[in-house]
Design a protein that fits this description.
Layout: E1 4-9, H1 15-31, E2 35-38, H2 45-54, E3 56-59, E4 70-73, H3 80-88, E5 92-95, H4 99-113, E6 117-121, H5 127-133, E7 140-143, H6 146-151, E8 159-163, H7 169-183, H8 196-208, E9 214-218, H9 224-235, E10 239-243, H10 251-254, E11 259-264, H11 270-282, E12 287-292, H12 304-307
Parallel strand pairs: 1-11, 1-12, 2-3, 2-4, 4-5, 6-7, 6-8, 9-10, 9-11
Helix pairs in contact: 4-5, 8-9
């Protein structure tokens, strides 16, 4: 049997990431550098380095940005307190927050304001969760596991559940089930509020694992969704490795495998996938077969500050 690469589709950039990067690129083209970005615009080192070369300056805190300058809010979203801080500093805010993240923020406000305890399923230290929690911190609790769900106290309030967008339905199911067991019927968003890109990329990895004995996931260590793709591949029975798509692939990584699956996190650019296919080709993996589990045609509108640029 010839050595083969099974290429996941969908893979790489989702619509929210595409939009965020385009916003920074357009601002740089229109205003010139520096353009300040609060937090990494997306969690990919290659993307961040490229934008830095163009003149983007990434900061951890809006206090690092000189008054009057442009401040781009990253795709992951921020708490209202951050927006208020930007306003006090006289910064010109451009919102590159993924519309699906903004939707979760709106749900957090709506549920909290209607008397619910909001159970936010996700990783407490993830920048997206920190931002969402900041919408209504007195009425929101982050739940990281079924064990935490089983111990949650609601003080008699009805419970509504929302989740980090980089987690799929599969990722949150056991925790939501534990919440349901503890509190009975939960208020929750419709299924269409789940991030389509996260679910699609995980479904594609599961399909690859039916044939591939090794799955390479291209992404950065900081990318929650790329790290999760590695976990999903392993749970499906394949070996899996997170690679950056730029470094040389060691023979020890691929040599024992006839069929390799290849995918990329939602913040990973397509050129890194192309480069990896090229590397694999030099090792005899000259047949590339695309495995498609879903078609994505989602596009998000640009904010007015750059829509005409």
């Amino acid at each position: 049997m010839s050595k083969r690469v099974l290429l996941a589709a969908p893979r790489s950039f989702c619509a929210g990431v595409d939009r965020a990067i385009e916003i920074v690129e357009r601002l740089l083209a229109e205003h010139g550098p520096p353009i300040y970005v609060r937090h990494q615009i997306v969690h990919n080192d290659h993307v961040v380095r490229r934008l830095e070369l163009l003149g983007a300056v990434f900061v951890d805190d809006e206090a690092e940005i000189p008054a009057g300058e442009i401040c781009v809010l990253s795709a992951h979203g921020v708490a209202p307190a951050v927006r208020e801080s930007c306003e006090r500093r006289g910064l010109r805010v451009v919102d590159a927050v993924c519309p699906l993240v903004s939707k979760v923020h709106a749900e957090a406000r709506r549920y909290a304001d209607s008397g619910h305890l909001v159970a936010l399923v996700g990783h407490a230290d993830h920048v997206e969760v920190i931002g969402t929690h900041g919408e209504r911190p007195e009425s929101t609790v982050v739940v990281e596991s079924p064990e935490e769900a089983a111990q949650l106290e609601s003080a008699g309030r009805p419970v509504a559940v929302i989740s980090q967008t980089t987690l799929s339905l599969d990722d949150v199911r056991s925790t939501v089930d534990a919440l349901e067991k503890r509190f009975g019927t939960l208020t929750r968003p419709g299924a269409d509020d789940i991030c389509y890109a996260t679910q699609n990329r995980q479904d594609a990895v599961k399909r690859l694992a039916e044939e591939a004995t090794l799955i390479l996931v291209i992404g950065s260590e900081t990318s929650s969704n790329a790290q999760r793709l590695v976990e999903v591949a392993r749970l499906a029975g394949a070996e899996a490795v997170l690679i950056d798509g730029e470094s040389e692939l060691g023979d020890e990584v691929v040599s024992r495998h006839e069929v390799i699956g290849l995918t990329a996190g939602a913040s990973t650019p397509g050129e890194l996938v192309d480069a990896t296919i090229e590397q694999l080709g030099t090792r005899g993996y000259d047949e590339v077969i695309e495995i498609t589990v879903a078609r994505e045609d989602v596009h998000f509108r640009l904010p007015r500050e750059v829509a005409s640029a």
